[in-house]
Structure to design on (547 residues):
């Protein structure tokens, strides 16, 4: 693995070396490394690019890393990863995509991830997107995540895109069974002429199911962000969606939360707030000795922490 | 030493100039200085002029003989001026520890942060990782604001009505905080207040009314006339009657 790939790996998976536990590293469309464990199996798909990940029932305290690295300009790929997680598991899955584009041609990765989380299992899914490279070619990522949570299952999805992705369209659809819980935390920062579209749809089908979808974003320069968040309460359930955005320069942010209650005991809340950094916040930090630029950076990094 | 020489500040209101501060001359020496006077008399404006948040329409401001009238907020902060806001600012995602670290200007340990927070009656363990957001009460924010000033430890500290909204924490403790600060930090501690008990620990008192200094001097000279005389701090008298 060269220095660029190592940097991408560090950015998207916080990894300095090859991880312990199960992993599958995809680099420039090919397999760069794989390890399976007694409980986590990884099988290459035969009909299309991608892998099946099968996690045995009862697997606890194990982690799985599945980073994707793209360093060749011009690659365009769609990858299908299916996660089948058994019952009573407690696992952490770290996915992420790093594109380094030093060329003129666009590089594009579309990751289509589907999760079936078994009864009473707990999954933490971390997804980081990062782009680098001086090339003029666009860095595009379009992740799709389909989630099915069985009875009592819990999934927390942390998705972060802070730097370097020119265009992204991220779609997440989830269906929850009885007593299942979904927590989504999204953090996005766009700059230059970047665009980022987010589309969440959560169906609270199960009794006492719950979802909390939280997005925090910062839009700088001429960038554009669209946040769509739909929660359908189809049973006795509770849902909350929140979009909180800081707008700077000439950026544009649209937030469209939508909640639908199809059941008398569905309790749903949506919140959306967009605004620039408050002048008094800048002044407060300046009275502590920070310059205006330092104060702004501090506010943004705190907001996206 | 802080000096305001012939300082005026006016704003445009309904296309006429409204004078908020009218040609004031004030010298603030090291020690405990209380600024009091009726609401709308120009006290907060004076604090903002000292911190550099607003610039005087005319006149000069000097810190230890150096003209700082045109110096930015940041540079004034780095020259040794601290300012505790009347209404502390909330920040999403920024923690109490982040703010105290920024105030201290260097990385600080939890033990050090604890030192400042416990002075204002907050348990560091409970607060250090809390976000300075809407989950904190106004009173908690005020105390964190004071802890930040202590962490800065500069030669001039300005507090704009520090007692307002301090909840469930006795006034006595607040007075104690200022007395400790005075003993440890030295320099000038300037407190805008209506509270007699705060005025009572001041070395000097400045009374601002209607944009002008209506009285200025040693506490023992100014306070009696403030309480019983005609200098006109009605707010203070009202509070005392309550």
């Amino acid at each position: 693995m060269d220095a660029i790939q190592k940097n991408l790996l560090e950015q998207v998976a916080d990894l300095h070396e090859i991880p312990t536990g199960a992993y599958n590293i995809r680099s420039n469309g090919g397999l760069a490394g794989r390890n399976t464990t007694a409980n986590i199996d990884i099988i290459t798909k035969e009909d299309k690019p991608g892998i099946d990940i099968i996690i045995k029932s009862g697997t606890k305290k194990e982690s799985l890393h599945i980073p994707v690295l793209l360093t060749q300009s011009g690659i365009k790929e769609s990858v299908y990863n299916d996660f089948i997680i058994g019952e009573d598991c407690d696992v952490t899955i770290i996915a992420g995509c790093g594109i380094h584009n030093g060329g003129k041609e666009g590089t594009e990765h579309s990751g289509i991830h589907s999760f079936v989380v078994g009864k009473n299992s707990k999954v933490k899914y971390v997804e980081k997107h990062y782009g680098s490279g001086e090339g003029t070619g666009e860095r595009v990522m379009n992740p799709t995540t389909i989630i099915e949570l069985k009875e009592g299952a819990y999934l927390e999805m942390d998705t972060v895109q802070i730097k370097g992705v020119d265009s992204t369209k991220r779609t997440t659809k989830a269906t929850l069974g009885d007593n299942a819980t979904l927590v989504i935390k999204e953090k996005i920062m766009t700059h230059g002429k970047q665009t980022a579209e987010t589309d969440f749809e959560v169906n609270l089908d199960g009794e006492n199911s719950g979802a909390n979808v939280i997005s925090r974003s910062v839009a700088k320069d001429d960038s554009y962000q669209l946040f769509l968040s739909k929660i359908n309460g189809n049973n006795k359930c509770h849902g909350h969606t929140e979009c909180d955005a800081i707008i700077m320069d000439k950026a544009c942010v649209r937030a469209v939360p939508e909640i639908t209650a199809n059941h008398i005991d569905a309790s749903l809340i949506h919140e959306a707030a967009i605004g620039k950094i408050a002048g008094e916040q800048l002044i407060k930090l300046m009275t502590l000795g920070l310059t205006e630029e330092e104060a702004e950076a501090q506010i943004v990094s705190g907001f996206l922490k | 030493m802080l000096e305001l020489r012939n300082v005026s500040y006016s704003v445009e209101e309904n296309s006429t100039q409204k004078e908020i501060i009218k040609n004031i001359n004030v010298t603030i020496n090291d020690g405990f200085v209380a600024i009091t006077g009726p609401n709308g008399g120009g006290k907060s404006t004076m604090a903002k002029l000292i911190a550099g948040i607003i610039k005087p329409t005319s006149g000069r401001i000097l810190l230890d003989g150096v003209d700082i009238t045109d110096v930015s907020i940041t540079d004034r902060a780095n020259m040794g001026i601290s300012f505790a806001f009347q209404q502390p600012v909330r920040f999403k995602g920024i923690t109490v520890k982040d703010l105290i670290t920024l105030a201290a200007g260097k990385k600080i340990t939890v033990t050090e942060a604890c030192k400042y927070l416990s002075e204002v009656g907050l348990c560091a363990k409970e607060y250090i990782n809390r976000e300075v957001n809407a989950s904190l009460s106004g009173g908690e924010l005020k105390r964190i604001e004071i802890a930040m000033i202590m962490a800065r430890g500069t030669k001039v500290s300005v507090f704009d009505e520090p007692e307002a909204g301090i909840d469930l924490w006795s006034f006595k403790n607040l007075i104690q905080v200022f007395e400790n600060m005075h003993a440890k930090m030295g320099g000038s501690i300037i407190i805008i207040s209506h509270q007699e008990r705060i005025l009572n620990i001041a070395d000097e008192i400045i009374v601002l009314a209607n944009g002008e200094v209506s009285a200025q001097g040693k506490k023992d000279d100014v306070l009696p006339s403030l309480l019983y005389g005609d200098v006109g701090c009605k707010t203070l008298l009202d509070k005392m009657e309550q």
The helical segments of chain A are 3-13, 279-286, 292-303. Chain A touches chain B at residues 216, 244, 278, 280-281, 283-292, 298-299, 302-305 (CB under 8 Å).
